[in-house]
Design a protein that fits this description.
Number of helices: 3
Oligomer: single chain
Largest sheet: none
Distance between the termini: 49 Å
Shape: globular
Structural class: mainly alpha
Radius of gyration: 14 Å
């Protein structure tokens, strides 16, 4: 239960005006939470856990796009 609360708090946290190092830390935290929730999901198959993991993954991707930049599509 504590892990789910931690994930929900992370999801609610504002990600604006973050330094690069803060973004790296946030990305790693999101990965840690997703992997931990996945271990629980494997045993319980609870769809609510899957929904949380999907939302965290979306947030993590947004952070990583900001870190790495958008891919250059120079045709």
């Amino acid at each position: 239960m504590e892990l789910i609360n931690e994930a929900l708090e992370f999801e609610k946290a504002k990600m604006s005006h973050m330094s690069t190092s803060d973004r790296v830390v946030a990305s790693r935290e999101a990965k840690r939470l997703i992997l931990a929730l996945n271990e629980i999901y494997k045993k319980s198959k609870d769809s609510a856990l899957m929904d949380i993991m999907k939302r965290l993954t979306a947030k993590k991707r947004k952070i990583e796009v900001r870190l790495k930049g958008r891919p250059d599509v120079g045709y």
